[in-house]
């Protein structure tokens, strides 16, 4: 490899939230590990450099670049609203706010400061709404677009909000002595604790600086008022200060464990923790020490460390000059809440002492220490003073507001080849002589300077004692191969053999990959465990007949079965009944079984007499088949004068029954019952037709009887055929039913059921309509012809059907209604006179993209779920109509949406967004999510 070493380019695939990795010219890598987040996640899981610029929501319709996962839903909604406003030519920028789209948290910044600003991380969100502030409109700086300024928010007081990589920095600028010196913000969202934390969010203690550079702490408290509101209140002591004065409250995202940890400890406060401090102290006669630990998971174990430099940003200290100190290796785990009294054990590893100057940054070479971290445990470092002086030096900690000042560790290293993936043997095989060991190839990195995969060689070893001892199968294979043929004939037989393999790139060996389980070296192959046992799972069998037991003989050489041992017993017995037969048949028939649960298992032999293990134990129930039931009513061939006859029967031992009705051999009705011995057929049998009833019973042994049958000859006097008429009104079709007066023996109509053709089949949509009644059908799509018929039921338990009738409804508006009570509806339309709302349609399929080795592109796997939604914007013309709409949504039930375009969908609505517009009208936005709904009753 070349001797020069400089960074060639960043390897983006190795990014983590707090690290970057470069490939160097000599093939090594350099990784910068930070104590704070430097990348954000987009919604696809990709990492991008943090950019603290603010973006105007009014221009979101032209943004197509990736945005942060945090806040992406807010971005998408604002993008839709921006586009809709521009399409309608009603865009008013004052109605749109700002967002930081490329930071690892949700930052929503108002254009009007009165609205308050929001910061969030995951489920933790806080909104700070200023109390008694003026409606000052913010201006984003042209040079630094992370800053927005609001003029005269309070009297002679400006406010500046600045987006930082880890939070929002607010600066309150008191321009003259007429400015107030106390301020309050109503806090909404996550409950904020007295220590100013709210989950992953934290308020940094406020401070001020005047025109002369004088700094003071600012009193900051959390108050919970009687109105159940929470306020953060700031009170500044401005006496003897020179204006202008800057007050600095800042909200940050607290770092997670993956970004490392640091803290200092002091002997004068031995039980105090300083993990929230933005400083790390060392010195003052060893009265201060600090600990630091970096997350090194981005760098592979076993890497060879060429160089490791720790950078600490200088902060200040006590006194002036310098101290002598050095790092010690921490030998046990510790937490960020560490104190002097519970500080971890540490050891001196011979690093030379270093001069630490107060207020100065420093770089510390920890190469030897870092190398040990990649072969042993990493518990970080402790910095201790080595001389005696009262001076102390301090450095910026991971809590520093400025990310560039935080501790950073830069490591340059070489990566050994990756671990190959051993495929065969991987446990469970039985091998005799010549066999092929196979594996997936290793790689030596993803850059052009790495050893090509085709040049890697492999060292393969065998153990015959489950990994206790190993010997070479081959010292090094040929270059680039992924298989190796080896004759095991001279290896000793064993049932606990293992293979392991590692790659070699010409410089170093990678990690071993070992067989997941043991395999057998046997110079003859035994059959494997028999499978596919039938009967099993407790299935019932008739013990009065021969019960056939079946299995599958399995042999890796396809050697046929020569013999079997079959064992069975009544569950609870300790002794097996054993059957041995020399046969190739993979079944055996048992007779005269005892009543009860039978357990059985089998093992098979190959042609050379080697036996398989016994199979898993299967169970079945040997029971007695019940006698067939006897249908007592109605008798075979009896004329039935009702459309819903009751079948009665006699049986013995019944715990369940199955009743089927067949017409010309085709099943039209079935019912599964329990112990009842009578059943009324819940299917309207047609007049002048013949049907066959089949009845079987099941007993407590789970066995089904033979069937008894009866032929039903249906002949009855139905009610007079009903007459249908239709009309349209109130966005619905009205079906009018005329039940003629009974003549002679015709029965009187008790009620009517209404049917409508849906998806090609008639479905009952209404029941118990009174004679000569009517039904209003609101579930009708505009422009789609509807077909109905009515079934009239007489008082003699018969029926007659009307002919079908067609009707067409045309809607001029869109309608949203209750699905349960469609007469409760609201018309929705444009205020400009258009006939319907602005509707988009979204279709989402359940889909997973899978990646496989050897395939350049993904493979899609689709699930069964389909998500469809209709984002909709419309005008409601009065407060009364708006109230009706709100009530529909608040009822939290399924709604029916129809419009003049022919849509008819059942939906749910999660909420409404309302905007007051002119003339007492309201612009409403909602998302209608389609749901399954059955009209059949």
Automatic annotation (TrEMBL):
Top-level division of the source organism's lineage: Bacteria
Subcellular location: Secreted
SUPFAM superfamilies to which the protein is assigned, alphabetical: Fibronectin type III
Coiled-coil region list: none
UniProt-listed NCBIfam families: DNRLRE_dom
Organism: Oceanobacillus limi
Keyword Secreted: yes
InterPro entries: CBM96, FN3_dom, FN3_sf, Ig-like_fold
A GO CC term attached to the entry: extracellular region
Entry keyword set: Secreted, Signal
Keyword Transcription regulation listed: no
Residue ranges annotated for the Carbohydrate-binding module family domain, each copy included: 260-413
Name of protein: Carbohydrate-binding module family 96 domain-containing protein
CDD domains: FN3 (cd00063)
Predominant localisation class: secreted
């Amino acid at each position: 490899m070349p001797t020069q070493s400089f960074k060639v380019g960043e390897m983006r695939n190795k990014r983590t939230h707090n690290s970057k990795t470069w490939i160097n010219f000599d093939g090594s890598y350099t990784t910068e590990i930070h104590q704070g987040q430097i990348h954000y996640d987009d919604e696809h899981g990709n990492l991008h450099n943090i950019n603290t610029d603010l973006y105007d929501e009014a221009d979101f319709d032209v943004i197509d670049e990736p945005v942060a996962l945090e806040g992406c839903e807010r971005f998408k909604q604002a993008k839709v609203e921006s586009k809709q406003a521009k399409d309608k030519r009603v865009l008013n920028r004052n109605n749109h706010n700002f967002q930081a789209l490329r930071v690892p948290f949700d930052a929503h910044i108002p254009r009007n400061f009165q609205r308050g600003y929001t910061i969030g991380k995951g489920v933790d969100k806080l909104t700070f709404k200023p109390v008694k502030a003026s409606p000052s409109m913010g201006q984003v700086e042209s040079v630094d677009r992370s800053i927005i300024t609001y003029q005269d928010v309070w009297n002679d007081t400006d406010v500046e909000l600045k987006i930082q990589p880890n939070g929002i920095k607010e600066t309150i600028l008191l321009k003259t002595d007429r400015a107030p010196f106390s301020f309050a913000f109503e806090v909404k969202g996550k409950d904020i604790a007295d220590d100013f934390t709210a989950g992953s969010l934290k308020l940094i203690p406020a401070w001020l600086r005047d025109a002369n550079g004088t700094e003071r702490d600012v009193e900051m408290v959390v108050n919970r008022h009687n109105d159940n509101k929470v306020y953060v209140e700031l009170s500044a002591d401005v006496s003897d200060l020179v204006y202008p004065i800057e007050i600095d409250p800042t909200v940050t995202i607290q770092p997670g464990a993956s970004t490392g940890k640091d803290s200092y400890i002091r002997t004068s406060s031995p039980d105090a923790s300083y993990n929230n401090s933005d400083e790390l102290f060392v010195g003052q006669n060893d009265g201060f020490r600090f600990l630091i630990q970096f997350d090194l998971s981005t760098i592979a174990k076993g890497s060879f460390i060429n160089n490791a430099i720790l950078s600490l940003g200088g902060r200040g200290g006590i006194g002036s000059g310098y101290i002598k100190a050095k790092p010690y290796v921490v030998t046990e785990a510790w937490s960020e809440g560490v104190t002097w009294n519970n500080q971890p054990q540490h050891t001196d590893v011979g690093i030379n002492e270093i001069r630490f100057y107060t207020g100065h940054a420093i770089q510390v070479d920890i190469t030897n220490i870092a190398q040990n971290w990649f072969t042993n445990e990493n518990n970080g470092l402790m910095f201790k003073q080595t001389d005696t002086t009262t001076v102390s030096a301090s450095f910026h900690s991971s809590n520093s507001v400025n990310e560039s000042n935080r501790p950073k560790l830069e490591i340059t290293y070489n990566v050994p080849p990756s671990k190959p993936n051993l495929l065969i043997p991987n446990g469970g095989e039985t091998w005799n002589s010549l066999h092929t060991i196979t594996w997936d190839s290793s790689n030596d990195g993803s850059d052009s300077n790495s050893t090509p995969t085709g040049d890697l060689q492999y060292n393969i070893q065998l153990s015959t004692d489950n990994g206790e001892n190993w010997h070479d199968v081959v010292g090094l294979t040929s270059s680039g191969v992924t298989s190796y043929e080896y004759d095991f004939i001279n290896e000793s037989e064993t049932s606990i053999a293992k293979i392991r393999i590692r790659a070699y790139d010409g410089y170093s060996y990678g990690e071993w990959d070992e067989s997941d389980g043991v395999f057998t070296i046997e110079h003859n192959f035994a059959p494997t465990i028999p499978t596919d046992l039938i009967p099993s799972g407790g299935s019932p069998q008739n013990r009065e007949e021969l019960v056939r037991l079946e299995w599958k003989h399995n042999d890796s050489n396809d050697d046929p079965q020569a013999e079997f041992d079959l064992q069975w017993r009544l569950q609870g017995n300790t002794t097996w009944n054993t059957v041995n037969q020399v046969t190739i048949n993979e079944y055996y028939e048992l007779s005269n079984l005892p009543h009860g649960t039978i357990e059985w298992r089998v093992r098979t032999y190959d042609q050379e007499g080697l036996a398989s293990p016994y199979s898993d134990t299967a169970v079945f129930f040997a029971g007695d088949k019940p006698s067939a039931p006897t249908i007592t009513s109605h008798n075979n061939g009896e004329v039935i004068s009702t459309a819903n006859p009751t079948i009665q029967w006699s049986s013995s031992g019944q715990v369940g029954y199955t009743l089927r009705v067949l017409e010309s051999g085709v099943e039209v009705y079935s019912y599964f019952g329990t112990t009842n011995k009578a059943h009324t057929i819940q299917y309207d049998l047609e007049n002048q037709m013949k049907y066959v009833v089949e009845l079987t019973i099941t007993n407590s042994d789970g066995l089904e009887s033979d069937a008894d049958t009866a032929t039903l000859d249906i002949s009855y006097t139905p009610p007079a055929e009903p007459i249908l008429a239709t009309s349209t009104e109130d966005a619905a079709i009205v079906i009018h039913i005329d039940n003629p007066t009974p003549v002679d023996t015709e029965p009187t109509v008790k009620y009517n059921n209404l049917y409508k053709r849906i998806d090609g089949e008639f479905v009952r949509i209404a029941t118990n309509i009174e004679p000569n009644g009517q039904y209003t059908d609101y579930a009708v799509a505009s422009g789609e012809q509807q077909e109905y018929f009515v079934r009239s039921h007489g008082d003699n338990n018969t029926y007659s059907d009307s002919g079908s009738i067609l009707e067409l409804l045309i809607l001029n508006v869109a309608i949203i209604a209750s699905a349960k009570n469609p007469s409760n509806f609201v018309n929705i339309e444009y205020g400009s006179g258009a006939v319907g709302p602005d509707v988009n349609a979204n279709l989402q399929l359940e889909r997973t993209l899978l990646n496989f080795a050897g395939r350049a592109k993904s493979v899609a796997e689709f699930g069964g779920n389909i998500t469809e939604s209709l984002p909709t914007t419309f005008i409601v013309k009065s407060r009364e109509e708006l109230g009706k709409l709100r009530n529909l949504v608040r009822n939290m039930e399924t709604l029916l949406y129809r419009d003049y375009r022919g849509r008819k969908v059942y939906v749910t609505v999660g909420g409404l967004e309302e905007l007051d517009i002119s003339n007492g009208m309201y612009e409403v936005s909602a998302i209608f999510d389609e749901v399954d709904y059955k009209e059949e009753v």
